[in-house]
Amino acid sequence: xxxxxxxxxxxxxxxxxxxxxxxxxxxxxxxxxxxxxxxxxxxxxxxxxxxxxxxxxxxxxxxxxxxxxxxxxxxxxxxxxxxxxxxxxxxxxxxxxxxxxxxxxxxxxxxxxxxxxxxxxxxxxxxxxxxxxxxxxxxxxxxxxxxxxxxxxxxxxxxxxxxxxxxxxxxxxxxxxxxxxxxxxxxxxxxxxxxxxxxxxxxxxxxxxxxxxxxxxxxxxxxxxxxxxxxxxxxxxxxxxxxxxxxxxxxxxxxxxxxxxxxxxxxxxxxxxxxxxxxxxxxxxxxxxxxxxxxxxxxxxxxxxxxxxxxxxxxxxxxxxxxxxxxxxxxxxxxxxxxxxxxxxxxxxxxxxxxxxxxxxxxxxxxxxxxxxxxxxxxxxxxxxxxxxxxxxxxxxxxxxxxxxxxxxxxxxxxxxxxxxxxxxxxxxxxxxxxxxxxxxxxxxxxxxxxxxxxxxxxxxxxxxxxxxxxxxxxxxxxxxxxxxxxxxxxxxxxxxxxxxxxxxx
Length: 506
Ligand code: F6P
Description:
By secondary structure, the chain is of the alpha/beta class. Helices cover 46% and strands 11% of the residues. It has 3 domains: 3-15 and 38-67 and 288-469, 3-Layer(aba) Sandwich (Rossmann fold); 94-271, Rossmann fold; 473-502, no CATH class. It is globular, with a radius of gyration of 24 Å. Bound molecules: 6-O-phosphono-beta-D-fructofuranose.
């Protein structure tokens, strides 16, 4: 299915490497690499001018994109072809927001209508008083809801949502301590409805409801899943099972009924705006020519750094407290999608795959990890994200200082500073990109997430890998289950000793 364009990557490595300062010698550079898109949530500026992208880099990556048939793969993605070849499935997250094959868009629309009806009924009091929702899920069934609610529902939540993912009971205990069982719903979010952490937490949450005097705990549960029959079998009434399609991957599922807590907290209209913001990015990805396509441009820069400059990590810093969970979300999206060692047809990958995605929130990170970005020996491309309109009503000085710091970091990384004293010298020529939103609202967040989804897809297509499976997570799960069921024997001496020390399997 996927050849690898080794000659193309060699050509990329062989290109001359002008510095950022030299690249800015071109007076057209800012106009060429900084693009403002008019989007439903307001404009977003994608400024890639402080990266080492150049017409030469773009030409070679454009050739690789041609060899790897990026345009054809993009068409297949949106047409609902079985692009997830190792699992024999399509990847139809965009259909959830109305961009895809007619049949899939129609199906998603019907499932959204079902979700909206339940959310509206809950808001109308059909399930009695609902002050809180404990949303139980993990990975893609938790990170998206957690991000969206933290970003958008800080003050205005219609229902107080607590997202619980970890099997460590401390997580569920903290959520339960903040809720009244008589006024709490439980959402069990799991594509497969088999994930150990989620099912264990869900069982304990039911127990808590029962202990708290709720006569029919299952009557307080909503299931969000692509395996509705399993949810019904587990005990959830069919009317409170919100299904989504098998063709929506876990880390791409926030747009589906996994977004139920977002709709419950923000209202169904806001959820619709969230989808619309993402759909606008889908359309840009499909329609904009390669050299004006902000998604392709970002992926080209990512590939340039991993493939030609040996970068093993890329960092993302949200200069907005409301987006503090975005780096976590992107870690799963990028590392679970593109952290692969073989191509889609199973051949060993001859090139590095995804970099490690990491990051944090500004300005906190400046006082903790930026030393290494400025003067360490690693070259680490950085993304900065910031928002023009602040999310608070305090003195505007807060936001002015926040944004000044964000832009100062990008400038400092690029410019550096000479000094005779080595410890005080900054080499500069360190790349960064800046995403600057006018406002943070549901549509903007939808656009930001969809931008990253497609950016990840483009990288995968040029490398020839399948970004939609995740077999790498299975081995550890299987061994844990084996140990849990008492069958874990014959491990290495270290593991045996740790199990014995914990008193497991005795
Ligand atoms: O183990 C990894 C994974 O399968 C992720 O891909 C997924 O988002 C997460 O677990 C949760 O899976 P589920 O939604 O089926 O519970």
